[in-house]
Amino acid sequence: MASTLVALALMCSVGIHGRAINSVIGPYIAYAERYYMCEPDNRPLPWRWWVRTTHFNPVRPKVLPRITGNMTSTSGDLDDSVWVKTIVDVRSNNQWKENAFVFKFNNKACQIAKVNSPGWYEVVLKKREVKGACIFKPGVYEFHDAPIDWNFPNVPIMPYGHYRARVMIGKAENLYACWVIEAKAVPKVDQHFHLYGSYPIYLTAFAQMCGSNRGLA
To answer: What are the residues whose beta carbons fall under 8 Å from the beta carbon of 169, sequence distance 6 or more?
Structure first.
């Protein structure tokens, strides 16, 4: 239930000028369209990535996109002493609604990535694990034509739409990385749930509460 409320909270946070930008929510397929970096003042940070992706094919939605590239680090371990902050922006009316949702964890960045984004962890980091430890040293982490499943097991439903996630990691006052993923969430095959009438009453009530002044329908 907690993850469901997170998804609904995200939906509630993205209204613009009294309008709701998405009234459909449910099980989804997430796929990335662009990967880049958000380094301040174009200053290279210790952990960087360069990623190319194949296109999502809506005719064959179960075929995973493939990524090629590398994540390269010159200093700083990626482990559970590192913090992580993710800022989610939402696209609507040809503009970004910035800071629609913000997640901040003061530590355990590595474990959070492993549990909440297992597809990314499997492709980029898993092969460099040592005895299952969530500790990754500076180096070059390469991947070539690797299928990636952008599933988030702790968020089983979410509003369908266009998202931009800015992921920052660091330790104390030191920023290690600032990565950006532009992605879309679309309904899973044969599953298209409208918010009203398809979910338990507590979800409908929650949605009505947050959307009552936004014309949510």
So the answer is: 47, 78, 82, 83, 84, 85, 109, 175, 176, 177
On the CB side of 25, CA atoms within 13 Å amount to 29
Question: Beta-carbon neighbour count of residue 161 at 10 Å?
Answer: 20
Residues listed for the chain = 217
Rounded CA-CA distance 202/162 in Å is: 26
Residue type, 78: L
In angstroms, rounded to a whole number, what is the distance separating the alpha carbons of residues 113 and 103? Answer: 13
Q: What 8-state DSSP symbol labels residue 129?
A: -
**Cα distances (Å, whole numbers) of residue 65 to 18, 52, 131, 171:** 36, 10, 29, 32
Distance CA 180, CA 39 (A): 10
pTM score: 0.77
**Element at 120 (helix H, strand E):** helix 118-124
The residues, ordered by sequence, that sit 6+ positions from 168 with a Cβ below 8 Å of its Cβ are: 38, 84, 85, 86, 87, 175, 177, 178, 179
CA dist 191 and 23 (Å) reads 15
The two tokens of residue 74 are: 């010159």
For 77, phi then psi, to 5°, come to -80, 145
pLDDT per residue over 95-121, tens digit each?
999 999 999 999 999 999 999 999 999
| pLDDT tens digits, 67-82 | 999 999 999 999 999 9
The residue assigned the tokens 């959307």 is 211
| Angstrom distance (rounded) from CA 97 to CA 90 | 5
